[in-house]
Every structure is written in structure tokens, then in C-alpha cells.
Amino acid sequence: xxxxxxxxxxxGTVGGGVARIMQDLKQDLSMRAGMPVDLIKIxxxxxxxxxxxxxxxxxxxxxxxDTITPEEASSFISEIIHDKDIDVVVETIGGTxxxxxxxxxxxxxxGKHVVTANKALLALYNSDIFTTAEASGVQIGxxxxxxxxxxxxxxxxxxxxxxxxxxISGIFNGTSNYILSKMKEEGLTFDDALAIAQEKGYAEQDxxxxxxxxxxxxxxxxxxxLAFGLDLAFEDIAISGIEDITDDDLDAxxxxxxxxxxxxxxxxxxxxxxxxxRPMMVKNSNxxxxxxxxTNAVRLINMYAGEQILIGKGAGSLETASSIVADIVFLARNxxxxxxxxxxxxxxxxxxxxxxLPYNITFDLDDVPGMTGLVATAIGNQGINIDTVGHNRHNIxxxxxxVATMPCSMNQIRAAIDDIEKKRPGVYLNPPKVVPIxx
Amino acid sequence: xxxxxxxxxxxGTVGGGVARIMQDLKQDLSMRAGMPVDLIKIxxxxxxxxxxxxxxxxxxxxxxxDTITPEEASSFISEIIHDKDIDVVVETIGGTxxxxxxxxxxxxxxGKHVVTANKALLALYNSDIFTTAEASGVQIGxxxxxxxxxxxxxxxxxxxxxxxxxxISGIFNGTSNYILSKMKEEGLTFDDALAIAQEKGYAEQDxxxxxxxxxxxxxxxxxxxLAFGLDLAFEDIAISGIEDITDDDLDAxxxxxxxxxxxxxxxxxxxxxxxxxRPMMVKNSNxxxxxxxxTNAVRLINMYAGEQILIGKGAGSLETASSIVADIVFLARNxxxxxxxxxxxxxxxxxxxxxxLPYNITFDLDDVPGMTGLVATAIGNQGINIDTVGHNRHNIxxxxxxVATMPCSMNQIRAAIDDIEKKRPGVYLNPPKVVPIxx
Lengths: 439, 439
Known about the structure:
The structure is a homodimer. The first copy, chain A, is α/β, with parallel strands linked by helices. Chain A has 16 helices and 16 strands.
């Protein structure tokens, strides 16, 4: 290509931002790409409103009426698929429908590069989409799909290509981080913090996927593929969300000089990859503990370059759009071959409960003498070293105290917990709460 | 190119790391580059020792004896310059000699891509080198020259290309940051902290350029060219180092909920760029205040993507080498055209003393009534708004107190300082110390 001609499908929050930036920075983008970068067509169901809302030239929209029907939209999309002049298509329709998957596959088959922020679609159909792209000699730009404005995709592809990534951890969901920050800083309950997040626009009306860790999991899946070459099915990743975090958990974390965060974590040891999304107690000496509000952060440990941290906005119209436009410029300027992770044959997922991490276990027991000894002995019997036994909050007739372990597996911890129950049936007033500790 | 053949000139700390990584990750690198990446020649004065120290195949070195003479080295380098099979040359000789500049220019003229960590050479001869490269259709890989392992060059070139950078700030020199961290955390004097830094290998025996801000200035110059398209002569940048920082300054910073850091700062306002390297009081809410030890960090404010922070190792053999190898892979994989900053015509440097920043001024005066009023009135008379007047450390017969201003220029501050002296000659027991505050 010597002119980069772009079409946008879906001109809502993010697509509108893309059109806006392409219009405002047209000269800069062309200079950086080394060729003209032209936005030539937009398909949206509400051309008039979208053009007006985002300040975009109305003539770029397909259709002359104020609104177009889904059938008309389909027909315009079909024209774009068959338009030999279009090189890059931005997919900002969203969702994971068969309809959308079909469009994306047809675009790829027609030789168009596709740029998208759609993490869910890529996570669900990733080998399908990436394999087809490889075969058609086109590229999928998805910088915007993982942590919005943080350039983690290109950083892994282009900047850490002289290294081996050993672990990835991070805060990949701004909504849940906002809620946890509010709970900690203002002493709010989960429900109250969620209500404020919704009021301020940091959480959707249906925040399920933000809260339960699925959105973060989609992003982690894409990074695992990129960094370790491992194709996972979404259900392979052990995911738990922040719904059950209470102020007791936040207090226990504080006692350990830590902060509770919803952490995406993947580590490669030998040919095995451990992957999880779950609340962890992040030590305050780890930068991730300092990330508050709707901000995202990614921390990588590289074999040669050591620790690297990237912090930025994880969502937002123009923030996400900025990443999409950077992908377009990159495609035009470099026209490189597809990225391949080296040496990934034989890599497989590790059984989650075998991976060793330091854990915090908060016990809630009858407040009678001998409890600490019973617990500590059972834990020691499983070959687990104890790091600290925290302050025992004796209140009325219960003993609540945290035990921080040295690295061990969930299998060992479960065995210890079962052993305590066996030795003293009914001892648990509440099931012990187990949270990994991240240094 | 369909095989990427590489030569390394100078196989010391960094060059040895490059050879080591290229040897250890050969398969991965070739996969990522989409073609074989072969290290085929190394020139070093001490082949035997270098091969041994870095664990590199001895056969790669030019010359069969244990050491070679400078004349032999020159002749081997000349062969490499004329070797049509070599595509990329890694320059890790170091220094800014005419001899080295001549080699680099000849390599470029011969159509070889050059990859280097040599920030001083690039900063001193930047338009010369980059213009020649442009004319010869080759690229200069210099990711390693700015903040070692932090991928700030490619991030600006490839990831923020859908945006406009508004400001760059950061900690670009690990040695001075290590010294300031030690002074703060352990209450050491500058001299004692420097001695420890030298003992632990964080500072050279001659640490002049680390301490006086020149090393950081070289890096800032390169980023200003990249982000704002402005070619500066090194002496254009207002630079001061950390030599005069005392524990009083650290205390004053703490009082303002800040930490003293050697900050590189560049901001574009309209068509004017403000640039400086100097100690600043960084508010503790700014991530840069949290960067301790020999770590580097870069903070960018983008027009659309907002705040972005990258943190990582700024130096070290393998850390720096990792960035050099990434540049090699990038050159091979993408073979793109040269990067051009958009829309930089007409951009020029701003008169330093006109730029408005919030400042802290620490006064050291006779401890007699009326001093605070005298100072505050003189400052107000220059149209400067005062944010806070800090705790007055009355000790024996002197009054020492900080005044934090709202944004104003150094010209305004100087006028206020002169006015106070005029109103009450001899009032300054020591000249007022003026430090910008970074939010």
C-alpha cells in the first residue's frame, strides 16, 4: 500500500474517537506513516447523531438519511469488504455475535488489515481469527483491546523481542480497581463503592464482567498468547472477582503492609504456564499496590531487562482511540510480517493448585486457647513454612487472625485446612479465606 | 534483507551482553524477526578475554591472537564497513571521538543500519547522524541510548503515533537517583551517598556527567527531537545537577509532601518547547517521587491518551543489551521507512526563565519580626500567587522558611528576590534557593 485507506465500522464512543483523531491529526499521521492516511468511510446506524456528537465530517458516513436500518448497514459493510481500495478496517461495533465474527473473517479473507478494541471477540475466537489472518497475509491490530492506552501489545511484540518474558502481572480492569480504591480510601462497602462507580461512569449498568474478573481474563488470555505462545480457551483460566471482598479483607491486607487488588497473573516456569485472575494482597513495595482509581498497570519481569512497569488509562473514548490510530499508523509505516512468539511448542498450562505462591489465610475460629497452635501445627505438617501469624482480633467469642505463608501450593493449603477441621470438627465459624500475596 | 547479518564493534559490558543474548536466543530472535538473525563478526581489542567473560563463541571475533592492536581493529572495522553481507552493525565502543564518529558515518554511508547505546555521540552529532541515515535509507536503532531497558524510543515512534505528546518528564539517570534515595532514606550527606554508589558500582570513578545532569540531558535532547521534532544543540538545554542538594533541601521537600529528584522536563506549549534538567520537588502523588534507587522512569502526557508512565532499569549490561537486540529484531522484521515527527516546522525553544512553573523558594534571613510580611509582599508585588508559607525554622538568630508559589516564571521570582534585597540590604544570610515543584 502507498496510500492507507481506512474504514470504520461502528462510530460510537470509541469509533467516534478514532474518526475524530484521524480528522484532527491527519497531517501528523501521514507524516509518521510515511504515506497519506485517509479515513474514507464510516458505517453507523445513526450517521447524523454520530457526526454531530464527535464533530466528524458527515460526508464520510455511508447513507444519506439521519439513521439507516441494520439491513442497509449490512449492505454497506458488504461493499467495504469488497472494496479493493480499502486497506484497513476499524471494527468498533463490539460484542461477540456470530454476525460480527462473520464480518471480521470476511474482512480478513478479503485481505484487509483489521484493527479492533474488541477483547472479548479476540479472546473467544483467537486462534480462529489469528490463524485466518496469518493465512491471508494481513495483520490484526489489537493494541486497544488490552489495557486501552497502555501500549503493552506493541511493547511485547517490538520492544521486548530481545528478551524472554518470565511473568506478567497487572491491574487490567479499571472498574474493579476503582471500587477497591474507594473501599480502601473511604471505608465504603462493596455495594456502595459500586454504586458510586456507576454514578460516575466508571462502571456499566451491568458491571458483571468487570466485577467477576472476566474482562480482565480476556486481556490476560491475549497477553499469554502473545508472550508465551500458548493458546488457551477462556474457561482454562482460573478467574475469581472482587464480589466477596469485605473491609475485613482490606484490614488484613493492611496488617501485612499490603493492598488488595484484582490481579491478572501469568508466569512461565520451564514449559508450564500458570495463569489466574483473582484478588491478591499486593505488598506496598510493589508498584501495583499504588495504582488507584480507574488506572491500569502492567508489570513484566524479563529475563535480561528485569522488571518493567507500564501505567496508563485502561479505558475511555479518546484513550482507546489513540491506541487504535497508532495501530493504523504502524500497519502503514512498517508493513511487516506477522509477529511470531519464539519457541512456544510444548508449552502448556500448569495445574492451578500446584503452583506455589505465598498465601494469606484468614482464620475465623472459636476463641479458646490452643487455636493458634492447632493451626500452625497443621500448616507445618503440610510442609508449609509460616512467615507471620498476624494480630488476633479476639471479639466476643471468636478469634480472627491471618497466617501468611512462604510459597506453597493451594493443594498444600487445602490439606492443612481439612486437617484442622478433622482434628477439631466445627472449628470454623466461617471458612478460611485464602488470598495469594504478591511481592 | 532476508537474512539479518550482524556485526558488533566493541565487546565490553554492553556489547558482550548483546553477543550473549544473540547467541542464547538465536532461535527466538529469528522466529520473531521472520528471518534468520545471525551474529557473524565481533571486533574487540581483547578477543580472548571478552569471549571468555561473556561466554561467547571465540570464532566470532576478528583476529586469532589473544589481543589485537588498535591498527588491526581499525582494519577489521574497515572490512566490516565494506562487507556487503553485513546488514546491521552494533556500535558499543562508546565515547564521542572523531574516530568513532567517522566509523559511524562510514557505516551509514555504506548502507548499514546502526544500533547503538551511545547517547553522548547521538546527542552531540544528532542532526549530522540522523540526516545522513535518512539520505542513505538506513535506520539508527537507539532504544538502548535512552533509559536502558525502558522502551521509550519505540513507544514514542510506534505506540503514541496516534496522539500528540504534550510533556515528557522523568528520572533518566540512575546514579543520581540512587544518591538522592540514599540521602533521603538513610540521612547521608551527598559525599557519603556518592561514595556508597561508587562502592556498589552504581557510579563510575568519575561520576561527573551523572551528577551534573549532563548524561540525563543527552537523553532528554534525543527525546525532544523525537517527540517534538526540535533539533537542539546540547548547550541550549538549561541543566543543573544534584551537587548542591543538602539535607535542608530534602527536609523542605518533605514539608511540602514532596521528594527531591533530578528531573528531566520538556513541555510543548503552542510552538514553543520548554526544556530543563534540574532537581525538582516532586509531589508524592506523582509516581516519579516513588522511583527509588538506580531505577529510571519516564512520564508522558499525551493529548488523547493522557498520562502514561514507564518504569524500568536505566542501565546494566544485559538490560541495555536487551534493548539493542530488540532494535535488531525490529529492523529485520519491519524494514519500515524512517520515523518522522509530524508538524514540527516552526517549533522553537522557549526562553527558560519565561516558562511558568510552581516554585519553592527557601529563604534564609535574619530572625526579626516582619520578615514574612516583607517576603510575602515582595512576591505578591510581582504578580505571583503564594500557595503556602512553610514552617519557619527559627534557629538562634536566623529564620529559614520555604514559600511555595503558584505557577510563575523565574523572571518574576528573580525580581521579587531583588526587590527584597533592595528594601532591606544584607537581609539574605544565604541566597534564596529556588526549586521547581512538579505535580
